Amino acid sequence: MQRETLFLKLMVILLGVPVLAICIFAMPEITHDLAVEFIGIKYLQWPMLLGVYVMAFTFFVALYQTFRLLHYIDKNKAFSNLSVKALKNIKTCAIIISLLYVLAMPLFYVVAEEEDAPGVILIGMCFILAS
Questions:
Q1: What is the C-alpha separation between 20 and 24, in angstroms, rounded?
Q2: How far apart are CA 45 and CA 28, in angstroms?
Q3: Going along 1-131, which residue ranges are E strands?
Q4: pLDDT tens for residues 87-126?
Q5: Sign of torsion over alpha carbons 124, 126, 128, 130
Q6: Sequence-ordered list of residues with C-beta below 8 angstroms from that of 22, at least 6 positions apart, any chain
Q7: What pTM does this model have?
Q8: CB contact at 8 A, 131 and 97
Q9: Of the candidates 32, 97, 29, the residue with the CA atom closest to the CA atom of residue 58
């Protein structure tokens, strides 16, 4: 069981590193372009960036809880109260991420109208349902 949980821990880390890199390097530029080009209101860049960072923080909390859950499995505490608490925290993070995407759906609508691509709204719905 140690080998499988080690593999899953590595996958959790490999999930977190690209998201962190995107948040640091790409998100300021993406939110600037979205606020200026699609919406036309420059001051919306910072609220959008804040929303993305809140989603990312929630994602990293869920990854940390997943890491803790895998640690509990390694210690043969898979069915303990600590594991249940970690699972509840992961569920709460997923609900928060879904709600934040629901709040961002008007932004998906604006992009879909500007680009004349109704599939963008379906992509936004996929993000909501994936969480």
A1: 6
A2: 8
A3: none
A4: 999 999 999 999 999 998 888 787 777 777 778 788 888 8
A5: negative
A6: none
A7: 0.87
A8: yes
A9: 97
